[in-house]
Amino acid sequence: MGLLNWELYSGPGFLLPLALSGCASVLLVLASCYAFSLRMTAGLRGKRLWLTALHLVARAPLVPLGVLALAFVALLLGTSVTASLLLLAPGPVALFASAGTWTEKHALHR
């Protein structure tokens, strides 16, 4: 959709909406790491889930960046070393995401 809008409205005025949607996309990708763990373990849903996830991203953005880096390294090892490593990758990624979420969530209550 962004490429279609770029072709229709190509000009300097298009850079601001493009930058805003890029920032929103990055925030949602980072918040989804927290949102998945909060949904599975804390039972949060809907608006409260995403507001809590965004709050945790604002507080500690390195945890979801670490989750994404771990997933990338697992994918890289799975494709370069052997594909059977890809079967083992989701476990450590999920554990790291859950541990980081709980660490930050309990740090909010101090």
Question: Would you give an account of this structure?
Answer:
The protein is mostly helical. The protein is built from five helices and no strands. The protein is flat.
How do you describe this structure in short?
It is flat, with a radius of gyration of 17 Å. The protein has helices at residues 2-8, 15-42, 46-59, 62-80, 90-108. α2 (15-42) packs across α3.
Low-pLDDT runs: none
Whole-number average pLDDT? 80
Q: What is the CA–CA distance across the termini?
A: 43 Å
Shape: flat
State the helical fraction: over 70%
Give the SSE order as H and E letters: HHHHH
Broad structural category? mainly alpha
What's the Cα radius of gyration?
17 Å
| Count of DSSP strands | 0
Largest sheet: number of strands, sense, barrel closure: none
Number of helices: 5
Keywords:
single chain, mainly alpha, 79% helix, flat
Explain the layout of strands and helices.
Elements: H1 2-8, H2 15-42, H3 46-59, H4 62-80, H5 90-108
